[in-house]
Every structure is written in structure tokens, then in C-alpha cells.
Amino acid sequence: MKTLISLEEVLKRKYFDKSEVITGKDKLKHQQVKWVHVVEITEISNLLNGRELILTTGLGWKSNTNLFLSFVNQLIECNTTGLCIEMGTNTTHIPQEVIALAEKHHFPIILFHEIVPFVEITQDIHSILINKQYELISNLESYSQLLNKKLLEIDSHQEILAYMQEHLDIQVVTIFDEKRMEFIPNLTYKERNELLEKIHQADRVGDTTIAKQPVMILGKQFAQLAIHSKNKDITEFETLILDRTVTALAQHLLRDLYVKEKKMSKESEWLSNWLDGNYNENFLNEHLSFNDPVLSIQGGVVCICKRNTNAHSGEIDGTYFKLLFRTVLERYGFHLFSTEIHDQNIFILVDKRSCENWKERMIAAFKRLKNDSSGRINLSTITIGVGKYVLSLNEMHKSYQSAKETLVLQETLNKENKSYFYDDLHLFRIISLTKKHSNLVEIVNDYLEPVIEYDRKYNGDLLLTLKTYLACNGSKQETAKKLYIVRQTLYHRIEKLENLLGYNFMSFERRVAIEFMLVAYDYLTTSKKNKLLQFNNI
């Protein structure tokens, strides 16, 4: 549907029957009129938006050719449709320089050889344009109502696209990713590739026969919808129809995702058995192949997300979080299965890509989740534990157990030592195991009690000095620099440490043990469960 009127059509209107086109005759059919202005000044650039038809008597320039040239040049630069000049009153002839400039840019200049009523011309053309806009809005509203009705009845998103294609009689392309694209009507392999290249280059080359728009779901681009017209530019009406269709498509796809998520929640029983290690490799492969015959599995990992709801963070939409988590992680090569236990979402991530970079892909996915544009999820209110990566599906229970251990450790570590991944916790896994089977406080005291007691009694910094000195590999210069103290003060503190821990505390075996105990001390003093201890028994 056209919302503008061509200059060729304007020339068929009343008052133009005796007009003369002296330049730009080859562009009359293509020049579109968006509005009509009557202008009698020469500085006009700041008043124009493009596609205006200008009516004038030439009062602004009269016999000044330079002003006339400047005026026409401004109209050309502002992409106006054409210039209509009433001859006789203020303009008696058109300079050859102006004609040459207009012809060079195929810019239409139209002459009235007798007085015409500018007010009636503007009223006539504006009434046509307003009626076209009204018709556009009516047709758009009618389309939207029928589309909304279809949303309640259809089973497939292709029906939405077919409806738009039938309504506009135009080529429709849906691009989900590099491997999944849909064409309505269908095209040959060669035609598909040619059109995809045009769509890809459209923005760069300014191709007006193509319009495209992303289909956004949960703040992420789920697909891209494009339309292509072979023989003409995309109209404003077609662009608006595209926008309404994209909104409807997003709603339908989101509804499908929610239904899919609800269905997967019902499968939690067999997932629980999988996490408990009750299935063998053959059963799991058969079950997964039945659900997705083309699923290629490289390994997998379990991720547990614990939602920490409080008065400040508010209630988290669990279904929305699962849907967002799935949408993001699947883009990084993981096929997800999810179940829920109390306030924990448990995700089994089956890897479809190389196991060599699984961790880097998960880190990138977590960054995208952290930047969730909807603002409905605050990742800082969610504790995440990722277990160890396993190559066999029947070993997923091992990843699950390590993910649970990671989740527990997350609550006992300070911000500096925290990590989502079991593989990153290193010493803290050993410390946690030691704490389970022995009195960790007592072991730490065996090594660090003299230093802790000295700092408590004299309000000193020996423990910090010891940690920094070991971290700097015994470099006195680097240690003094990091502690912001002079060398002499550091020498005095090291001497104190030798008196309290023994002169050989920097020997290999003793140093390793002390470093381990310093990490254990941090673990115990920052742990939520151990804060009450505070080493009161020292």
C-alpha cells in the first residue's frame, strides 16, 4: 500500500494541467511527495525533512542568480521532491546555470505560466496524503486484529509468516541461525544464497528493496525477519506490517518456549534418577536419541543455581530464569535438561561442541546472563556451582556431587577466592575434606597460633606480613613495597616471625604447610558457618 503520492500523479491534479516541466522529467514517476510547502525565503535547509514539494514565486531571489542557485542546491541536498515556480510575479526567466544544476541531479523544476492558488494546491495534495495515512492506519489495525486472532488458533509460527506473505505478496525470510532459515515462498538454492547476501549487505549499501528486523525474546535476538521486494522499494506500510508481525512472532515463540519449559519440568523424575547415577550409558544414549536424533554429545557438566531471595532482591521468576538460562546456554553449544529442588535449579548441560573449550563458553554465557537487559534477573542474588566436566553420560552423578560441593564452598569463601567452577577451587576442596575428617581449627592453631596470638595481644600485622612475604616468594623489597613500610620495619617483623615460627619457617616443607594453613585460616574466618568460632579457643 502506498502512503505517498508520486510527482507524476501530482501533475495530473487540478491547477497543474497548464504547468511545464523543464528539468528532471525522467524522475517524475519515482519522486514521492510527502508534504507541500510554500516558501519565499532562500535559507531553507533547517526547515526541510525530505520529500517535500516546494511552491514559490521566487520572491527570495528575484533576479539574483547566485541566491537562486544556492536555493536549488539546498533543495537537492535536503532530498526534496521538486520545485514549482510561479512565473511572472517575481521571476521572469530561469537562468541557464540553474537548469544545468537541476538536470545534473535529475531534480524536477515545474513552471506555472499563470497565477495559481497555492493554498488550494496544498489543500488538495494534503487531503490526498492524509486520506492515504488514514487508510494505512485502518488497514494496519485490521491486519493486527486478524493477526492477534490467529495467534489464538495457530500451532506453528510458519502460519504467521505465511499470513504476512499472503497479505503483502512479498518474499519473506526468517533467519534463526546460519543453519536454520525459512523462505516463504520457497526459493532455489542459488536464489536463497543470492537473497541472503543481499540481506546481509542491505544496511551497508542502502538497499531499499529490503527491510529487516530482529525478533527479540527475553532481551536476546532469537531470529531475524526480513522482507524483500523485487521490483520496488519497501513502503512505509510494509515496514509497519513487518514490525507488527515481528511482535506477534516473538509472542508465539515465547509461548512455545514456556510450554516447552513446563513440559521439561514434568520430566524431572527421570532426571533425578540420572543425577543419582541409576542409568547406564546405553539407556541414556537411547533416551536422548529418541528425543533428539541428531544430538551429538561430547560430554557434559551439571550446574546448580540457588536463588537467594531476600527483602532487597525480591522474588525471582523461576520459569523466566530457567527460560533465560536455557536460551543463553544453548547459544554456546549446550543442550539443557533442567529440574528443580526447593530453591535450586539444577541444569544438566550436554555439550554439543568440543570439550576443550567448554569452560570458556560457560564463562561467556554467564557474562551475558549478568548483563540481562530486561533487568528481571540479578545474577548476584544467585549462587552458582558448576561441577567437574565428565565425558560419559552415566558419570553425570559425579558432576552433580561436585557441583553441590562447589555450591557449599561458594558460601564459605570471600569474594576474592570465589569461582563458579569446581575445577578452580583447588586447595579449598582439600581444606573442606580435611575439615570433615578432623579438627581443622586445631590444625591451623598448631601452625599459626603464635602469630595470631601476637597480633591479638599487640594489635599487630604479623599475619598480614607473613601472607604477603610468602606471596612475594621471600622478596623483602617487593614485600615492603606492597605493605607500604620501610625495609627496616619489615626486617623487624621477619625477625619476630622467626622467633614465633622458627628460623626455618621459609624452608620448603614448612613453608608449604604454613601457606596451606593461611588459606585454611581464611576459609574458616570468612565462612558463614564458622564465624562464631573466631578462634576463641586460642
From TrEMBL:
Transmembrane segments: none annotated. Residues 9-128 form the Purine catabolism PurC-like domain. This is PucR family transcriptional regulator ligand-binding domain-containing protein. Residues 462-518 form the PucR C-terminal helix-turn-helix domain. Residues 325-407 form the CdaR GGDEF-like domain. InterPro entries: CdaR-like_regulators (IPR051448), CdaR_GGDEF (IPR041522), PucR_C-HTH_dom (IPR025736), PucR_dom (IPR012914).
